[in-house]
Fold:
Amino acid sequence: MNPEPHHTSIDIACYITASLYVDCRLRDLGVRSVAISITVSKLRSFPPKVFEELPQHFGYSLSINRILWILVFAGIAASERLERPWFIDKLATMCRMLKLKSWVELTAVLRSILWDEEWEVPRGLLWSGVEERLNQ
Structure:
């Protein structure tokens, strides 16, 4: 019998984020839907574990890229939710650590995972929140 594969909290958060992408982009659910609300709340509960694991993964760019991807997608989906500032704060912290100073630099990282320019509507809203935190 094969042992079960080990899944880190980053892996699990990526699976949940991928389902968020499928729901919003392919199934055309709006960010105000109950399903998206549940998914965003679930992602909000994962990042503490993800951030605990961050030091052990910091040398691995794939893990860092995945965490950025999770925070961006969840932050966009949380556009009108109470969780939004939390995602913006964590994303700003990551951008500061990685010295990412522009939306262009951030999306270059996101493209290594999965990115669609049409995802963020209205454009620039998430980054303006991050930029505000970076300038504090």
Helices lie at 9-26, 34-45, 47-57, 61-77, 84-98, 103-110, 125-134. Residues 9-134 form one domain. The radius of gyration is 15 Å. The chain has one domain: 9-134.
